[in-house]
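A.,

Following up on our hallway conversation. Structure tokens first:
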């Protein structure tokens, strides 16, 4: 069972990244729970979602230790780093998380997600870059399969944006290059 937390501030697409991870996981036969948490401020306030992903029924959606943290900003690293298990992974948006000291007993993938999405003319795609980095760093799913799942998710909503796939692939490649 994998415990994943996506965290950032409102407006960064943290909950959408979690929904994408949950949706694609379900499509590939995984059992999942997705629990959102956001402040009343919404845009600019803190937001996070917590997922459990496994092959068998999940009896409790809550967890106290994190296997993978997707941190869109510095405050997210500060809030959740201590909950990451030894050997766990932090995916940090290095555009906004600068000069941070990370624990020695975890793996860290620093990916310039905000800069990459801006470079690809998809400024709202930083969350997709981070999701790509998380899949690349953890190997939870084959990268191409997950990208197909993202395309299908947005396609069902009538919002096909080829730049989302490009953001995802760039994020996955950035994590693989580390």
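Then the amino acids I'd put at each of the 178 positions:
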């Amino acid at each position: 069972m994998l415990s994943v937390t996506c965290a950032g501030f409102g407006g960064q697409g943290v909950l959408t990244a979690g929904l994408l991870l949950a949706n694609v996981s379900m499509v590939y036969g995984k059992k999942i729970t997705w629990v959102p948490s956001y402040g009343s401020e919404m845009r600019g306030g803190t937001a996070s979602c917590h997922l459990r992903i496994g092959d068998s029924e999940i009896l409790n959606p809550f967890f106290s230790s994190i296997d993978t943290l997707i941190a869109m900003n510095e405050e997210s690293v500060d809030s959740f780093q201590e909950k990451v298990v030894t050997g766990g992974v932090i995916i940090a948006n290095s555009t906004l998380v600068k000069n941070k000291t990370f624990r020695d007993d975890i793996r860290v993938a620093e990916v310039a997600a905000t800069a990459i999405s801006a470079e690809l003319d998809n400024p709202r795609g930083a969350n997709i870059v981070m999701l790509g980095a998380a899949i690349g760093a953890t190997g939870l799913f084959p990268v191409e399969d997950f990208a197909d799942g993202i395309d299908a998710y947005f396609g069902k909503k009538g919002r096909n944006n080829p730049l989302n796939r490009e953001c995802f692939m760039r994020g996955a490649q950035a994590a693989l290059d580390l």
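The chain has one domain: 2-176. Curious whether your intuition agrees with the design.

B.
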